[in-house]
Amino acid sequence: MESVNGEHKDTPLKREKRERREKRRKELGFCFSIMASRTISKDIITLRGSAAIVSEFFGYAANSILYNRAIYPEETFAKVKKYGLSMLLTEDEGLKSYLTQITSQLSEWLEAGKLQRVVLVIMSKSSSEVLERWNFKIETDNEVLEKEGVVKEKADKEIMREIQAIMRQIASCITYLPCLDEPCTFDVLAYTDKDVDEPLNWMESDAKLINNPQMVKLHSFDTKIHKVDTIVSYKNDEWDEE
Fold it and tell me: Distance between CA 76 and CA 89 in Å, rounded?
């Protein structure tokens, strides 16, 4: 850069470098603004969005339990990619329809803040004796229910990692649960607030408890609106207690 009469004059080389820096600065600024916008939009959790996350989670968890506990034949499940994992979903049309109806109703209750817990019960097909209870306890943020338009923030990836941990524990349940050496069936119980009307195709039920059960606490996940704690309880193996 030269000085003429006290003023600085750009050489072609200096001017070209400055223009390149300015162009690069603008490009980086533009990219950053897009990335920031995407991050913010992904992190916002609404009541409806949280209800969808939790109800969808239960659908995948139920499929995984029914597969890993061999309640339905292995060949009736197909692999899909979900939560960054290889998951299994039923191809049995009857079961698929049944679980879809359940998750749809759960989503409605979750959005209304009326659902307290969901329990998947595994029973002996011949005696109806309860052998396992997969208990998903749900806590709902009261602020979101009481104030319209309130949202929470949490990274999608963080929620996914928490769900991954639960799904891995369900998939490895054969390592900590006794074998089910007889044909079994299952039922789904929903614990709601008392002021909830009984929906179509649902009916009141007893709690289907297990006397003196063993319990295993699994990981939990939290959307910042709904927190889900998971516990599986199962019948004591009498032979182990002798």
Answer: 8
> What is the chain's alpha carbon radius of gyration, rounded to the nearest angstrom?
27
The amino acid that residue 229 corresponds to is D
Question: What is the SS3 string spanning 92-137?
Answer: CHHHHHHHHHHHHHHHHHHHHCCEEEEEEEEEECCCCCEEEEEEEE
Is residue 32 classed as helix, strand or coil in its secondary structure? Answer: helix
Of 1-5, 81-85, 197-201, the one with minimum mean pLDDT is 1-5
Instruction: State the CB neighbour count (10 A cutoff) for residue 135.
Output: 20
Confidence (pLDDT) at 41:
46
Residue 42, C-beta contacts closer than 8 angstroms, at least 6 positions apart: 155, 156
Q: Are 201 and 102 in contact (CB under 8 A)?
A: no
Q: Which of 181-193 are b and which e, b meaning 16 or more Cβ less than 10 Å from the residue's Cβ? A: eeebebebbbbbe
Quick: pLDDT tens for 179-216.
999 999 999 999 999 998 888 888 888 889 999 999 99
